Structures are given as C-alpha cells and as structure tokens.
C-alpha cells in the first residue's frame, strides 16, 4: 500500500503521514512553502517530500490513494490531475477515521484556543500513567519526539479542529473523530474564510456533540456562553465543567499563583493535590484542569495526573524559549487570535513582572486577521506589551496603520519587511528585555534573525 499526501507538511497531514508510516504504509507527499518543525520531522522519518503541487508529482507516482489536505482547492494542478485521471482520493480526517480511530477510545480536544497544548497534556498524562496512548497533535509536544504515533493501547488523543475537512467535504474535521471523551475548551468566532458567522461554528460543534456516546463524557468551560448555547442545542452525554476564576461545583482551582505556575486542583470540593510546573498563564491552568478531567475519564486518578503535569515540557511554538543573547530572551508562540494574543502576553507579563520590558512582534497571517474581522479587538489584546512591532504583508484588507494610531496601548511600528522589522527591534532591545514573537506561520525565520542580531550586538 502506498499513499501520496497533498499538503503533507501541514500539522495535521504531517501527523497522518507519521501514523501511516508506522502502520507499514509507504508514504510520499507534496507541499509548498514548507517550514520546521513539521518538514524536519518528516525528513527525519525518511518520508519523501516533493516541493510544489505540479501534476508531474502524481503522474510519476504509483500511489494507491491520494490523501487530500484541506488546504487544497480546485484549480490546484495536483487536485485537477487527480480528478481528471479518476485517481482514488480521500480526505485526511476520513482516512484517519477508517484506518486508525475505528476501534479506539478517542479523547478529542476542541475549541478556538488551547487545543494543541491541552491535547499534549492529555497524551503526556496517559503516557506517564503507563497507558502508552496513540495521538495526533497539531504541534510537537516536548515530552515526545513526534507529533503523532499510533500507540499500543485503546486510547488515542487527538486535536479536534473545527476547520473544514476538504474541498469536497465542508464538514468540520472533528466530526470524523468519534470521541468518547470530548473537551470543549472555548468557542469564539474564527476562520472567517470558512464560516460566515459564529452561529455556523456553533452548528458544527453541535454536530460534534451528536456523535459522543451516551456513556461518554463532555468536559466544558463553565463560563463560556457560546459553549452553553451549543450544549443547549442537545447533549446526550455526561458533562463536567471546568473553571479557573469561578467557584464552580466541579473542576476548579484554589491558592493560584498570579502567573499560573502553581495551583491546587479540586473536584466537587475534594482537594486532589497541587500542580507545580514550568508552564505559565491562566489559560494553561484551564487547559490543565481539562486535561486532568479527560484523563480521569480514561481511568487515570487525578493525583497521578497532577504528578504528570509537574513533568510536562510544553509544546514547540507555545511560549517556547528560542534562545537568549545580550541578556534578551526570545520566545516563540503560535498566538494569532486576539484572545490568544491577550492571554499569552498577560501570562508572560505576570511571569516576568511589571517592570520588565516585553517587545511584542506579531505577524498578521491568519485569513481572519487579514480580513479585518478582529480589527477592533487587536489593539487591546496587546495591552501587556511595552513596545509593539507588527509585520503587515501586502494582502491585509484593512487600515491597520489607522487603527493602531488611534487605539494602540504602546508604541507601535508597522513594517512590511522582516529585515526592517528585525532592525527596528535591534534598535531598542536592551538587556533584561523579553521579545515575544507571535505567528501561526514561520514568520520568515525571524527568531534566528533576532538572535543573530542580538549576538552581533553583544559583540
């Protein structure tokens, strides 16, 4: 059996490639504009990559089936070749459902924010407990060498994305996953290129709830009104709620340190223990509670989950320290939605203190951000920064300059050149500063350029 994956360097499709390879399937694939960590991970696994989507990459292939990523659209040369030559094709989520998830206890993590980190926590807790789970995560967890593996137990952890499945299947990817344990982390409007409004996303989440077994468990954010609306449309499973700042009856915390680095875990007023770990931010405290609840449903005692989180190493590109030079620390984070930008910055601010300078670098890369859907919320989301630097590509469809001039909470520079942005940061960076780079893409390898510039500055 041989498969060719279109869009193989996407975080999800790259995970599918690893699972297929582990199952003894010959894997090849093509993609465009690849960047680490996924491209590096695939190369390390010996998976053949072709740059670009020319028809010739399939013309000379002996693949039995084409697995189509959701970034592929009509007009793509490889897609047109597949259709014109009547090649067998399938979406990535459907391939996963049929070949991996069919007989597994699936623990799915959904929501606008926190999916990758929470799924990584769940996988690590199960691993720590000796359950050897399979998983597919949209990032590389620090506790594992890869973003996906099949495991040898019934349990499989998956990051459950609401984005559409493929150009020929416009349902959300997560409806293919058959979760028995489902985390609903949060719900906001996003993916404006796919969903016309928030109600359309709520409908997809309702479809997800429809496939959770009555013997399953739904873990939800206690104070998220959008999730309340989804649950009111119908839920046929047990529900447990999670909250950090509210005294809910089920999963909650006490004695929380401001930066989220320590907290007590309680369920129905029973104290299970205290988490002391290397993560920061209240959003990660919420993620941890959800992960503890999910693992408990799979049979892992909360006390064991708390022990596991003390050894949780985080996820690549989630407040990841990329290096330090000239006394300046450079971080990399995936934040690109105003809520994620705000919580990430606030977590770092509480960790480093009020007097430290945070230089926030943001790439407007997501379709939703470039379309201007979040233009009103963006300035306030950057309030914890000392200085703001924004990379604006030519396809931003709104007047970023005007909005930031009127509402920016800190000195702001908007540049259309990454090299010029690096120089602007170098001109103000000083010992003791923290540079936080936020993007859901590669950002032109800006982290390496910043560290090189800082080392040169150090002399």
Summarize the structure.
With 459 residues, the protein is α/β, with parallel strands linked by helices. It has helices at residues 11-22, 38-44, 56-59, 77-84, 92-101, 115-128, 198-209, 225-232, 282-297, 302-309, 338-352, 367-370, 378-381, 400-407, 418-426, 446-458; strands at 2-6, 26-31, 48-51, 65-68, 89-91, 105-110, 134-136, 148-149, 155-159, 164-166, 169-172, 179-184, 217-221, 238-242, 251-254, 262-267, 270-276, 320-325, 328-333, 358-363, 387-391, 412-415, 434-438.
Task: Please report the distance between the alpha carbons of the first and last residues.
Answer: 55 Å
**Total DSSP E strands:** 23
- Mean pLDDT over the residues: 90
> How large is the count of helical segments?
16
Strand order of the largest sheet: 8-7-9-6-12-13-14
Helix content: 25-40%
Q: Structural class given helices, strands, pairing?
A: alpha/beta
Which word captures the global form? globular
Q: Could you tell me the strand content as a percent range?
A: 15-25%
Q: Describe the sheet with the most strands.
A: 7 strands, mixed
Radius of gyration, in Å, reads 22 Å
Uncertain runs are: none
Describe the protein:
It contains 16 helices and 23 strands. It is of the alpha/beta class and 459 residues long. Strand 4 (65-68), helix 4 and strand 5 form a beta-alpha-beta unit. Helix 6 packs across helix 9.
Key terms for this structure?
459 residues, alpha/beta, seven-stranded mixed beta sheet, 16 helices, globular
């Amino acid at each position: 059996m041989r498969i060719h994956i279109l869009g193989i360097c996407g975080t999800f499709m790259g995970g599918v490639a690893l699972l297929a390879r582990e199952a003894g399937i010959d894997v090849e694939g093509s993609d465009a504009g690849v960047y680490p960590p996924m491209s590096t991970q695939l190369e390390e696994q010996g998976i053949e990559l072709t740059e670009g989507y020319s028809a010739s990459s399939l013309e000379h292939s002996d693949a039995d089936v084409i697995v189509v990523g959701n970034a592929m659209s009509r007009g793509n040369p490889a897609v047109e070749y597949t259709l014109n030559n009547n090649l067998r094709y399938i979406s990535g989520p459907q391939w996963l459902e049929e070949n991996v998830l069919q007989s597994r206890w699936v623990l799915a993590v959904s929501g606008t924010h926190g999916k990758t980190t929470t799924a990584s926590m769940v996988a690590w807790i199960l691993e720590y407990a000796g359950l050897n789970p399979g998983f597919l995560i949209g990032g590389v967890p620090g506790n594992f060498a890869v973003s996906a593996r099949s495991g040898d137990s019934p349990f499989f952890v998956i990051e459950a994305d609401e984005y559409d499945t493929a150009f020929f299947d416009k349902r959300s990817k997560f409806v293919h996953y058959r979760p028995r344990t489902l985390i609903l982390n949060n719900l906001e409007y996003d993916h404006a290129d796919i969903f016309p409004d928030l109600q359309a996303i709520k409908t997809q989440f309702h479809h997800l709830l429809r496939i959770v077994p009555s013997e399953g468990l739904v873990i939800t954010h206690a104070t998220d009104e959008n999730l309340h609306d989804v649950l009111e449309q119908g839920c046929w499973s047990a529900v447990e709620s999670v909250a950090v700042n509210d005294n809910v009856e089920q999963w909650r915390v006490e004695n929380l340190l401001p930066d989220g680095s320590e907290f007590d875990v309680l369920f129905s007023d029973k104290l299970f223990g205290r988490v002391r770990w290397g993560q920061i931010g209240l959003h990660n405290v919420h993620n941890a509670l959800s992960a503890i609840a999910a693992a408990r449903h799979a049979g892992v005692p909360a006390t064991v989950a708390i022990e596991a989180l003390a050894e949780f190493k985080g996820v690549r590109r989630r407040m990841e320290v990329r290096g330090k030079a000239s006394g300046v620390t450079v971080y990399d984070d995936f934040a690109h939605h105003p809520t994620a930008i705000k919580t990430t910055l606030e977590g770092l601010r509480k960790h480093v203190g009020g007097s430290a300078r945070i230089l926030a670098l943001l790439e407007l890369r997501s379709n939703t951000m470039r379309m201007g859907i979040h233009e009103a919320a963006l300035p306030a989301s950057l309030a914890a920064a000392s200085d703001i630097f924004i990379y604006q590509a030519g396809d931003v469809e709104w007047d970023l300059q005007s909005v930031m001039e009127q509402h920016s909470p800190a000195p702001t520079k908007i540049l259309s050149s990454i090299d010029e942005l690096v120089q602007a940061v170098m001109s103000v960076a000083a010992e003791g500063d923290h540079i936080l780079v936020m993007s859901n893409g590669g950002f032109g390898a800006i982290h390496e350029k910043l560290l090189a510039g800082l080392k040169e500055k150090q002399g």
